[in-house]
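thought: fold this chain, then report.
action: predict
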Amino acid sequence: MTERDSNTTGWGHGDAEHVSAFDPNSTDLQIFDIHEVPTHPWSAELHDAATGKLIWGYPGKMNEPQKWGGQPDLGRALAANCDPRYPGAVFFGLGTH
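observation:
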C-alpha cells in the first residue's frame, strides 16, 4: 500500500497514519488518520482502506473555533491493540488541547 493508494477519501494524507485490520469482526483493512489543520470535517477519522468510506470521525477543531479556541492541531496519534482482554484497537490522539 502506498500513500497514493490510501488517499481514497479525498481528504489528503494524514499527519499520522496507521493501517491494520483494527476491527476484529472484519478481515478488511482500515486506516486511522490524524489531520492537522483540516479543511474538511475531521481531525481524526477511521475509514475503510479499500473504499475510503468513513467508519467514524472526530470533528475538526477548526469547525468549532469557539469550543477549541481556534487551535486546529491534532498532529500525533496511535492506534493499537493495547489490552488483549478486549478485542480490537484503541485510538489515541494528542493535540494542543
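thought: worth noting. The beta strands are 16-20, 30-34, 42-48, 54-59, 76-80, 90-94.
final: C-alpha cells above.
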